[in-house]
Design goal:
Low-confidence stretches: 1-7, 89-94, 169-180, 547-552, 689-701, 751-756
Shape: globular
Number of helices: 27
Strand order of the largest sheet: 12-13-11-14-15-10-16
CATH superfamily of the largest domain: P-loop containing nucleotide triphosphate hydrolases
CATH class of the largest domain: Alpha Beta
Number of domains: 4
Radius of gyration: 30 Å
Structural class: alpha/beta
Mean pLDDT: 84
CATH topology of the largest domain: Rossmann fold
Helix content: 25-40%
Length: 756
């Protein structure tokens, strides 16, 4: 993998040196600071911040799409403009501030724009805002007397060709120097207005004049794209809409090619390294484990295991993604791979994103192994090995003992969180790294754990979030993919029902009764909330929750509040406990342990139970404010029930109306338990950069223009061309190509480097 160059300028090419110029060096520090909320730091960032829409001066915005709290820029026509409390002579002024109210329309609906200021300014603005005038109005959408309005927006008046002819900004530069009759509306934030961005983009473009294209000419010809400088000018200073499409196509291709070139380089880099073959050995720990299994492996588990065993037996490192449905047996497959490595004389490390999940893996694996996990103790079977757990909260004495076992090789399997990356954790012979819930980690964390091995280890990445092939090719393109779709026999069906708490309040009470009935049958239940306390404004345990798309919803029910309400109300006769991510680790483990042991009837929780929690006796789940969760998160949560032989029921409580996009998500989840089908729905509804979480794609590298469903052919073409580039230049001696890969790697490492 490319070594990050952080001493002085990391760039080998003049192109990337100029694109990476910080905005304050071009725009000045004061203006550059305005761009920070949009994560626009460099000239290149600004060039890739393109208008979301272009107007010719005759097109109007759809005002019905506006939401309270949004920063917007809309093209609209003035209906009327009236003044209030206005007089040039203070003695005759009416009480209250002088103001102007302009009514604007898209010919379907209306919106009020309210301006405050000195009488002379208000008179000037009124002269600009005559009936029939068209302009761009930019500001924050607020609510007054029950109606949406723009409070004191900036505005620019345009003629029928889109040329600026006046407005609140006298020198607004919404068009290029050549008088282009197209107005671009940029995504904005805070005090940053669309014309300010246009001005700044023009300055940035001048700083890039004559820039060398980073793509080889043969790649541009094959992809049929324009050169980079032309693409930037096409999107920021278009002469007509056809050149906009050419510019956008080039920038979409750049996103796809940068990712695919990086993936191709990672694949070639991995293939160039030597790994110790860990061939399966008969009569060892793996065979002893298989012999004690109380069930037969599914056909899918057998097929995927054979793929992994073949990879482990090769002389170059395995780089494989194992994805599977909730409950498909990924942990079992991964454990068999770890045991094969132990049989071959090596060690395996399992990296989990949270302490709860790491502890769950430890208990699951030691439970499945039984006495085979007692290596190093008196009376242990010949083939037994040690299994240890290392997390940030592991007591000092236990941690010393665990690290000694890892360093000596006595522990064949080492399970932990980020704590495994600490300098005090060393291995005798690390042969396999298993990373669980890969979307919670970045590539750099994989590499940091792998670096603890003397020889490049094999890597197996697991995710319970089904990933559409198009996303896997884009984000996990450096990995071979194995998929488990088959659910083991004996798993029960789960019925999912969406409950409208506004129009069906009695159903909520029926839900609590259903939990009482399930407990009466000897079963257990979960109740899930979207946040921890009424005083917390963030999402569950730091997670990013979905918007309900209406922008006006009441705060989500807090787990602490609902816990008290349930145990003193409808569930008063049951054993109810609470767990969330801010509890001390020992307390979390104790609560989860009692629930797993059947000592607790109902667990009121946050998404801390989302993955890894395996309680086959749990048959009911109520998810409060379900519209605050994404599709994959709901699928994961629902996967905590129906894991045994008992049928399950999952109630999704929501206040979202039937026309709400959040309600569409819930209906999709209720309609199927097929995680791969839901992943496709999720992908259609959301930006791809959010599907797997920000930490996978890095701090700035989420997709901007590229859409993996729409652009699947473009991505495939970029992959082919990237592979040809690496075949011709495996060492990336071309400085421009080297910088393309470095740019992606530095973005992907962003969060990781900042943390540590």
């Amino acid at each position: 993998m490319t070594t990050l160059r952080v001493v002085g300028s990391p760039w080998r090419s003049d192109t990337f040196r100029r694109l990476s110029t910080r905005l304050e060096n071009v725009l000045g520090a004061k203006t550059a600071k305005l761009f920070e909320p949009l994560k626009i730091i460099t000239v290149g960032d600004l060039m890739r911040h393109v208008p979301r829409r272009y107007f010719s001066g005759t097109e109007l915005s759809d005002l019905s799409t506006l939401r309270e709290g949004e920063e917007v820029a809309v093209m609209a026509e003035v209906v009327e403009a009236r003044t209030f409390n206005l007089s040039d002579r203070p003695a005759y002024r009416s009480p209250g501030k002088s103001r102007l109210e302009a009514i604007i329309t898209d010919h379907r609906g209306k919106l009020t724009c309210t301006f405050f200021g000195q009488p002379r300014l208000i008179k000037y603005w009124q002269s600009q805002l005559g009936p029939g005038a068209r302009g761009i109005f930019a500001g924050k959408v607020t609510r007054f007397n029950g109606r949406l309005q723009l409070a004191h927006p900036d505005f620019a008046i345009v003629d029928e060709h889109g040329v600026v002819i006046g407005g609140a900004k006298h020198n607004a530069a919404l068009v290029s120097a050549s008088g282009v009759p197209l107005v671009g509306l940029y995504p904005v934030s805070g005090k940053l207005r669309t014309w300010t961005i246009a001005d700044c983009a023009a300055l940035a473009l001048e700083s890039l004049r004559g820039i060398e294209d980073p793509l080889p000419e043969w790649v541009r010809r094959a992809a049929e794209v324009v050169d980079l400088e032309s693409a930037f000018r096409a999107v920021h200073q278009p002469t007509d809409k056809s050149v906009i499409n050419q510019g956008r196509q080039r920038m979409r291709f750049d996103e796809a090619f940068a990712l695919q070139l990086t993936m191709a380089y990672r694949r070639a880099d991995a293939a160039s390294h030597h790994a110790i073959p860990r061939q399966r050995r008969g009569g060892g720990l793996l065979d002893a484990f298989d012999a004690r299994l109380p069930f037969i492996l599914t056909d899918g588990q057998i097929a995927v295991s054979e793929e992994i065993m073949a990879d482990l037996g090769r002389t170059h490192p395995m780089q494989r993604l194992l994805q599977g449905e909730v409950g498909s047996g990924k942990t079992l497959v991964a454990l068999r791979a770890m045991l094969a490595v132990v049989d071959a004389g090596g060690q395996a490390a399992l990296l989990a994103p949270t302490e709860v999940l790491a502890a769950q893996h430890f208990h699951t694996i030691t439970g499945m192994l039984g006495e085979l996990a007692s290596g190093g103790t008196l009376g242990a079977p010949d083939h037994a090995t040690g299994v240890v757990l290392i997390t940030g909260s592991t007591a000092a004495g236990r941690r010393r003992e665990a690290t000694l076992q890892a360093a000596s090789g006595a522990a064949g399997i080492v399970i932990g969180t980020h704590a495994l990356l600490s300098s005090d954790v060393q291995f005798a012979d690390l042969g396999l790294v298993v990373v669980d819930e890969q979307h919670r980690f970045g590539v750099e964390q994989r590499a940091a754990l792998s670096a603890k091995a003397k020889v490049r280890p094999h890597v197996l990445v697991m995710t319970a979030t089904p990933i559409p092939r198009s996303v896997a090719m884009t984000v996990f393109g450096d990995l071979e993919t194995s998929t488990l779709r088959e659910i083991p026999a004996g798993r029960a069906d789960v019925t999912t029902v969406v409950v409208d708490t506004v129009h069906q309040p009695s159903w909520v009470q029926r839900g609590w009764q259903r939990i009482v009935e399930e407990v009466g049958r000897g079963r257990q239940a979960y109740v899930v909330c979207a946040r921890i306390s009424s005083s917390s404004s963030s999402g569950t345990d730091g997670e990013n929750l979905e918007s309900n798309a209406e922008g006006e919803a009441a705060p989500a029910v807090a787990v602490e509040d609902l816990f008290e309400e349930l145990r003193s109300g409808p569930l008063a006769r049951l054993r109810v406990e609470m767990v969330h991510g801010q509890l001390p680790s020992e307390e979390k483990d104790a609560v989860m342990g009692r629930f797993a042991a059947g000592e607790t009837d109902v667990l009121v929780a946050t998404t801390v139970i989302e993955v890894g929690v395996d309680v086959p006796n749990a048959s009911a789940m109520v998810i409060h404010d379900a519209d605050r969760f994404g599709i994959s998160q709901l699928h994961q949560l629902r996967g905590r029930i129906g894991r045994g032989a008992y049928p399950g029921v999952c109630l999704l409580l929501t206040t979202a109306g039937e026309e709400n996009s959040a309600r569409e998500r819930l209906d999709a989840v209720a309609a199927t338990r097929d995680g791969f089908a839901l992943a496709e729905v999720d992908l259609e509804q959301r930006r791809e950069g959010d599907v797997l979480g920000a930490s996978q794609s890095g701090s700035r590298s989420s997709l901007k223009l590229l859409r993996v469903l729409r652009d699947a052919d473009l991505i495939a073409q970029a992959r082919t061309l990237a592979e040809q580039c690496i075949a011709q230049d495996p060492e990336l001696s071309d400085p421009r190509l080297a910088d393309i890969v470095l740019d992606v790697e530095m973005d992907a490492a962003g969060d990781w480097l900042e943390r540590g």
